[in-house]
Fold these 3 entries.
Entry 1:
Amino acid sequence: MPALALMKTSFQRNRVYVLNHMLNNLGSFLFGYIIAMVWLSLLGNTPEGREMVTYVMVNQAMVGLVMFLPRGCFIPQKIREGTIVFDLVRPQNILSLAFFEVSGHVAYNFVFRSLPIFLLGFLVLGVDFPRLSQLFPFFLALANGFVIAFFLNYLVGLWSMHFVDFTGAQNLYYFTTATFSGYMMPPEFFPGFVRTLVEFSPFGCTHFWPSAIYLGRVPLFQALWIQWSWIGILWVTCWLLTRRLVQRIPIQGG
Amino acid sequence: MITVKGIFKTYHVYQGKGWKRRKKEIHALENMDFQVTRGECLGYIGPNGAGKSTTVKILTGIMVPDSGEVISNGYCPWKERKRYVKNIGVVFGQKTQMWWDLPVADSYALLGSLYRVEPRKARKQIDFLVDALQLSEIFHQPVRQLSLGQRMRAEVGAALVHDPDLLFLDEPSIGLDVVSQHNLQNFLKQLNQSGKTIFLTTHNLKEIETLCTRAMVINQGKIIFHGTIPNLKKMTELPVMVKVQLFENPTPEGMEQIRALSGEYDREQGIVAIPAGHEKGVAEITRILMHHLPVEDLRVEEPGIEEIVKAIYLQELSRNRVV
Amino acid sequence: MGVFLTLVRASWRAQTHYRFNFFFTTVSSGLAMFSDFLLIWWLLMNFPSLGGWKLEEVACIFGIVNCSWGLFRVIGVGLKNFQEFMLSGRFDVLLVRPASTVLQLLLHRFDLKSLGGVVQGLGIGFVALTSMGLLGQLWPWFLLLCLLGAIITLEINIILAAIAFWTIRNEEIVVLAFYATRTASEYPAHIFGPFLKNLLTFAIPLATIGYFPLGYLLGKMQNPVALLSPFLAAGGLFPISFVIWKMGMHHYSSTGT
């Protein structure tokens, strides 16, 4: 199974640095804690306030799964080092190689980043567990959110195939996802048209929809049709662009 | 095994800055034709920027030529890429296809699955590679801890986990010390004798002499020689040079001797260069020089790739002029 | 001064070589930075105040903190990526040169794109001051606080970089001890409860960049020490960062890792 083997390798690559990551989790938790305290200050220690604390901390635990993926899905790094040639001589295409490599990375993040951060949130801030019936819908929406985040990051990788320097594209990705994913607050707090953008753009699919389902605020099917539509659109886009760009990859050193 | 017909490849390079930059065409390959027979080890030589890498990239399906045909191992590399690459192995000298933080063993296991090698077959092949490439001590070490020589050995093994019939090696011995080079060459020779076809790009003439029966020379996107190694040597007939470092300028009598041997003296560096020819061999020249000149150091230089290519290129030009 | 100008010119040329890319990177990095403020702005539009601070007042803190962060980054790239210097062995190159290592790190490269952050911080602060009708009165203070903030940021980052002399890798520590606390210092510190507030006041005194002096200037605090706190922090951190850096260098050169 090439897919599983790729995921396993990518998972193990991270285990070398597990101690560094634990320290990093503390920092990551602190970011969530800051926003949670802002909410508690705004809404007070009310049911609404506590709901927002849960919303924020669930999103914070999710950042390693749906926001901070490997830059450009490792592609810019491979272009810079020239090792992209090896991906090009494999009997798989770059899109699926990247997907399973990033999946392994994210599986690692789930165990060694998301769970510890969530646990800290539970211990320090008393984050609520979801109702049992929401558990499966949540993980389904979360998985969809990851796939969409993968495609968005992959687009950054495609950019580096064409222009080599990808800082601009990475910045643009960071801006759109940080602003419109709703990781800090749900759509109802955004002004007018931005609310629609958070609800219906691919960015909201990564953070807002999964955590809204966690809180049991929205029915699963509503999240699913938006997420699956975006997965379809992005998949086709990435696939077509890969076909076009792969033959013109700038290969360093030769 | 490989048939190449009329390959053209042109790059566009942008020159100048900002908005005013200009597009410039570079002809990397022009009308390239050649064949590689099954079981052969072909040495591919040329100066930097001659189009070597472009050729290898086209043959491995990484790059698409502007026009022309390639049939390699029964497939067109870029049209039937996935099926084609299952049976080729690739080593690119200074790049690694293993995973930096992981043991060699893990990289091999992953490569085995990527090529969907049957587990039992993969284990057998990996055992063979560990044994033949002497990897047992380093097999469970992370790649980043390996020395260059060890890494290169593991690298060659990584390209062979799926036991391909056709091998592309791009500068496999770059940066290796003499002993490691020798070991690697022995291993490649074994492989070749067991029936693998090898396409070897290198700067190292010795390597080509030990491994290849035929060689191909490319310059500025054109093949300027394709034939056996003895023919390549005969065709160029470049002399071996005797080079001597002097510790002071030669006497007028010494200069006389240099001229008599049709040599040259570089006054700035204090180096005398004498071509060894049919009349006087290296031993005789050395004796004369030691006798008449204030010699500090002496060495004998074989012609390098650049000189051979230049010689063939000039020969080609003069022949065309005669015709 | 001549060296300084040459360096700026070289950085400018290197970074503007590909004009489209430079333009795109600068605009997008400005946008990426702006997203932090955008979210705070949109959020606070829904509420009358955050812990007694109005939107404009929070924006003032945000402006100062980010302006000083930007000023630091223009010269502090070397310190910011100090782990890279240690891992690649480039730090040893600095050691053999006859000049202060900190100075060499600072002059290593000017990151002109960070000027975007400075402009943004100033812009947000000035718009906020204008809408409160306090611009004429407070702009000199605002500029002075940005400058002091840059010095405090620099000193904290020297201390955090020095940790790498012992640990080689310090990225995670910087994320925890600086990036997270820097984000916290964009808000009125009392909303975080006593532990984090004390941490931001006495241990990693980032609250003295904007929160305390602005609290005094905007009439929320009566104690003038609040206004003096950035001077105290900058002055107090100077010898500490100096000594820790020296100790680190000593440790590094005696263990010879």
Entry 2:
Amino acid sequence: MNVDVSDARRRTVRNLALDSALFVAFLIATAPRFTGIAIHEWLGIAFGAAIVTHLVLHWSWIVGVTRRLFDRAPGSARINYTLNVLLFVLITIVVFTGLMISETALPWFGIDMRPNRVWRQIHHLASDASVFLVGLHIALHWNWIVRTGRRMLAAWFPPSMSAEPASVMQREVQQ
Amino acid sequence: MNVFWRVLAILAAALVIVGALMAFRQTEFAETLLASPERMRLEAGSDHDGRGPDAFFARGERGGLFPGNAGRHALERAPDPRGIVEVLKNLIVIGVIVALVAGILPFTRRFLSRRAKAKPAV
């Protein structure tokens, strides 16, 4: 039981750390004027890879809800699922169009992309829309973020011993 | 091995999206929807007078202003601390959405569960 709890806790910490890093990377990547175009492009590619990792880590949730989508899934899970699919589509479009208008990253590999206004417009439209969807994605997971954040803070700066039942930890890992 | 197949599935899904995007890009609809202002002007038959807000970037994209035909992106080539405004702007937008949705969510859940309870069991 103790092994399960510590394993679940470790996974929760890992998920929160990766998600926080993803959020910071997203915020920085959406401001190319701040980072300059080179960092913007490399960060965007790294962000794409991190999104794949994020999806692999939440694979059991994806498979579980996909299986139950049309019969037994609760309404909130369906909304969450639809939003996540939209977000995946948008992020894919942003990363792909970003590669199509790349001025630093792809030329570094010897691939020169001609400037294309249509790809650029799609890139800007999709990244603007993804800001809103990321906001909704965070909002739907806000309770988990706050709960887990509090628990992590309590673990790092312990005011008193707090023991959580394994079931709660397991549920949070699944989110 | 499991992870490999999962990554492959995710990449395959991304490839489907990219394929659809490429197909969309080829359509007349995309061309009209996302046509450049300069091209629209040319197609409309009016001559480009080189003035107005777009003229600055249009000149640059033709290669006269910025090296590498980068246009507006050339302005973003070097890091600029003033760009932090963009980060803050997006952070505020996300914060407002989170505040609104996370504030509304408990009421929505309560409403949905009340409705579900009110429904007679079949």
Entry 3:
Amino acid sequence: MMARREPQPPRWAQRLLSWYCRPELAEDLEGDLNEMFDRNVRERGPFRAKVIYCLDVIKFCRPYTIRRPNVLTLIPNMIMLGSYFKSATRSIARSKLFSAINIVGLSVGMSVGLLLIAMLTDILSYDRFHENRDRIYRVTSQFQRQGDLISGHMATTSLLAGKEIKESLAGIEDVAVIHRGFMGDITYGEKVVPFGGLMADESFFNVFSFKLLHGNPATALKEPFSIVLTETFARKLFGEENAVGKTVLVWGRDFSVTGVVQDPPKFSHMRFDVLGSLSTRTITEKDNPYEMLWENIWNAYAYVLLPPNSSPESLQQRLDEICRRKANAVASGYVQLGLQPMENIVIGQNLGNQIGPYMGSTVVWVFSAMTLVVILSACFNYTNLSTARSFRRLKEVGIRKTIGAVKGNLLVQFVTESVVIALLALIFAVGIFVIIRPHFISMEYSLQEMLVMDLSPQLIGLFILFALLVGVAAGFFPALFFSRLSAVSLFKGGSGRPSFRGITARKILVVFQFVISIMFISGTVVIYDQYKHFLSYDLGYNTENILNIRLGDNKADALKNELSKLPEVAGQSQSQLVMSVGNYFYTFMKNPSDPNDSAQVYYNRVDENFLPLHDFKLIAGRNFNPKSPEDSTEREVIVSSSVLRRFNLGADDPSKAIGAVVNIDHTDLQIVGVVEDFHYGRVNNATNKEVVFRQLMPEEAKYLNVKFVTNDLRRAYEKVEQIWSGLDSNHPLQAKFLDDQLEESFRGFSASVKAGGFIAVLVVCIASLGLLGMVIYTSEIRLREMSIRKVFGASEVGILYRLARGFMLLLGVSIAIAIPLTFLFFDRILLPGVANHAPLTWFEMVSGAVVILTLAALMILSQTLKVARSKPAEVLRTE
Amino acid sequence: MLRLYSVPRSLFTDYQMKGTHLGEFEELVLLTIAALVNDAYSVAIRDELAKHADRPVKLGVVHAVLNRLERKGYVKSRLGEATSVRGGKRKRYYTVTSAGRAALVRAKEIRDNLWNVIPEFSFKNT
């Protein structure tokens, strides 16, 4: 009978101890730990004893126990490293083709990694300049109405919330309240300069670390009609003159310049040319009933500065309290306030109404995951090729072992080799990085806003670190494989040779690479099809050849007059917003038959030309009657048929609803027309069907819609530009064709297509390189076998089949896995969340497999044909 | 010639103080070693201390103190015989040196002297 094994202390902990501990102390220490271990096994059981043992080993790591580095052991290590390096370069030079395949594959994979590193470095350097950044929290809001979410989480909050927090300052150091949308023109003497900025209160410079160069930070933003300019803007306006104390004209009122602030750094989530004092609004907006409304959470920001060592939780509790107390102020809903730490502003929660550039954490996670897949795929190439070709190195390993190399030596030797390859790959990868960087940044508008990705020394250091990591990751398994071989079996030869081990693992890696490649190709095609589908989607009205001109402060009439003289202009209308691109204005409408019922309706204010110009389908009633400019009362409204359904108006016949009076914003309006449902929001948004058109008041006209009949839109646009500059020389023309605006509103899709396509190309490149390597290698070692087969009468086709069979089988397996996976991913996970999406097609599903099959067939054929056509006499002559 | 040797005395004593000062825990460990006579090795010292001082003592701390005491010259150590327990590792036995004994006596004297100058009533009142 065998004695039951006594529990032993963990091996790794014992090794760690003898590695770091001074030899003269080690024996006693080990003995003590063993004694305590035995005692703990008896008293507390083997598991606890092991845990305590490990902890003790770590605790014993003190200055007096740590072994001093010994020069005598270091020198041989250094010499050996040199030797490893030498043998690495030799082996790289010996098999140039395979080294090239490895280097190219790794550099392609690493270039994406470099993009990710550069991007993350940039994003993480945001807002570092704020001294109090750990203590600054932004107040976020969410508007709920009878249980439904009306808004998502917003980065904005109400001015009233800011005021409430400020007044109950207990437990808070300070609050900076900011209002967005401070823009327009500054006039100083003859000079008129357009600006964009924020309105902030006097706490601004206390909470944030923007440096005020002139002026008093405590009072600069205190008085109404004070203005603080950035350095650059002040120079633009005043040249070298001293700006402070000057009076400028903004919004038709005098503002005095109270300070000059350093330009906000590039990596600031908040950007401005000009800061106005928030107290200005108490005068200019005195009669605005919405200004201090609790539910007006769309335009203001509040940044709370907590005292050192205090937690945001207690503040959150107080916010909850304020929300509950204020809930009665909003009859129709509930506003929930939250807190967001400053470090989560640029990267983190996806909030609406951001103050400046930000990137959702989902984007970052998806990109990181994709990068990881690409890099892994590249590492697999190296692993596969070096283990497959291992038998070329077996003799070397055998000799090294015989003359005294231990496992560790061989491990380091082979890892050194892969690290050298990774470092060589880094050189190419940086080249690729520099080439693709501008394309990457310009892929999406928000990336352009946010990223610089300059090659700083710090970044290059990170790159080298990354290359080392990739080298170790790629080379570790082959190195482990080589170091574990036993010297005796290496020289014996025969069937027991270890080069045939690990074949299944290799096959799995190849299948993984191909599955990923196929999925990326198919996925990109699917997203591209969806993108095209949404662009050609029938919105319910005509969008062709319509130019939307932003009016700014200009009156429409003069422009309209000039434009109507152009022969290309077929018609003009005015509107408050551009629809179908993701702009939403909503209000509440009362049910005429039930005074307690009201519902949210989206609206756009338009003039009487708008509906005909856009070919809206009136299914009952008539268009608006023309209004004289002096008439500023609103009387009429045109609704979409969904509004009738929502309020049960007109039963089945929309014409019965004509003449009904509805109440919107405390005004009684008569329904004069009904239009067929159309897409007010973006097409991939199924809600917001209830739309009303309201009459346009002259001062509310934001856009002039111009319809052209011409084949040369570019020429027409140039003419419009000329007319514009004749009327307003201070502002450039801001005009876009509606179709372009629609396309822009789906730029998230087009960016995904570009990114997905790019990564698909890389993944396919890497997988193809790997396959090429494997095919070259296999046909090389089977050349003799095939020649002998030929001698015995095998046909060329038969040989081709024999060589290609294995690879084709792997491809078949990959396709069988990849297609269902892709289908399930889109059908079950991604597309159900997208309204009005196009159905998946067979073509999309098969496309990836076809591309991969073609590429693989090309590669396999090119190599195997060579073997099949080789002359047996030449190959076998040397035998 | 004498001047050559006039090293600032404070410097010298500072060094001495740092090198030979006997901390409270060090004193306890030293006493335990003396009490255990021929059986004073790390685990035994730890157990004995834990028994008398009535508080958990970490083995790592005892080791650190033993190491320090040895550097100060208060104890000396030798390795024992290998046995089958402790995974075949030898124990390191400690004995108090004469310098160590002197330091202990001095520490006791300082305490006794201080105790003697405490007027009796100062404790009675509290």
